[in-house]
Amino acid sequence: MTLVDLMEHFDTDERCRELLVRLRWPNGVECPRCKMPAVELATAKQLFYCKGCDYQFTVTSGTVFNDSHLALQKWFLATLLLCEAKKGMSAHQLKRTIWGKNKGSYKTAWYLCHRIRYAMTEVRKMLDGTIEIDETHIGGKRRGMAGGAAKKEKEVVIGIVQRGGDLKFVHVKDATAKSIREVMSEHVSEDVDVIVTDESILYASGLPKTQVSKRKAVNHSADEYVRYEDGFCVTTNTIESAFSLFKRGIVGSWHRVSPKHLASYLNEMTFRFNRRESHTLFLDTLRHMVTAPVLTFERLTA
């Protein structure tokens, strides 16, 4: 899907709604309350009616589109821009692209971006096979602080990637063996084949007992980044590349990410990364948007 395709195929609100209906109810329209079949009313706003619970609704009811006064064409445009921005797109840039330099409001663009990111939250999936795990610290430079003191002031993100599979970023309170153990038990299958880490003692003491024997470590302190054992590549380059991509997004696009909303930006990056070879990224995102629950501005800023 390109911008030209988008403007050609979804140039009206009706066409946008038709696509959302097919994505939300592939087997026919059903009531979001009682899940019974519903019928379309003869109205200009494409209302649906459920006789079972006497409820009228639209395709955007109870979704991230809920109560939005923004035209669906602009929703679609914003979604495509976020999907195609490999390093992310800031709310300021989105505002300039859609509304122009002196029109629209930053608040509207910011809320729009966060609702799309909210829909990109995926159902938890256990990773197996060969995985790489590493941790990084997110935060700007602190004057007069260096080394461990500077890291204590930053946010910790643990990254796990299955080779040939999905990526998962997890925002944790601190870089401790306990945090590693909790993340591993929640996101990595017990029958994982190989766990590749760096030489940090965090992984020597943090891995569950059933997984310690499956660990292979690369020694970065000795300038070792790739090692081959019987044809197996011991490296954490894949997860480090994912971290690098996310940090370039912060430096080049978002410029600043607050700890409160860090998980949302991580979700966006992993959602896009896990579908980097997909030709249906735009449609997958819209499908998540019409099935995700409502995100109110009050809840977002609470």
Short overview:
The protein has 302 residues and is an alpha+beta fold.
Question: Your description of this structure?
Answer:
It is globular, with a radius of gyration of 22 Å. A 5-stranded mixed sheet has the order 6-5-4-7-8, with helices on both faces. The chain has a 3-stranded antiparallel sheet with strand order 1-2-3, with no helix packed on it. The chain folds into 2 domains: 3-122 and 278-300, no CATH class; 130-243. The mean pLDDT is 93. Helix 3 (72-84) crosses helix 11, helix 4 crosses helix 5 and helix 5 (106-119) packs across helix 11. It has helices at residues 3-9, 13-24, 72-84, 91-98, 106-119, 147-152, 177-187, 201-206, 237-254, 262-273, 281-289, 297-300; strands spanning 39-40, 48-50, 55-57, 130-138, 155-162, 167-172, 194-198, 215-218, 227-229, 232-234. The protein is built from 12 helices and 10 strands. The chain is α+β, with helices and mostly antiparallel strands and 302 residues long. The two termini are 35 Å apart.
Question: In which range does the helix fraction lie?
Answer: 25-40%
Described by the principal axes of the CA atoms, the overall outline is globular
Order of helices and strands: HHEEEHHHEHEEHEHEEEHHHH
Q: Total number of helical segments?
A: 12
Give the end-to-end Cα distance, rounded to a whole number of Å.
Answer: 35 Å
Radius of gyration based on Cα positions: 22 Å
Beta-strand percentage range: 15-25%
How many distinct folded domains?
2
The strand count comes to 10
Mean pLDDT: 93
Poorly predicted spans: none
Strand order, biggest sheet? Answer: 6-5-4-7-8
Structural class: alpha+beta
What does the main sheet amount to?
Answer: 5 strands, mixed
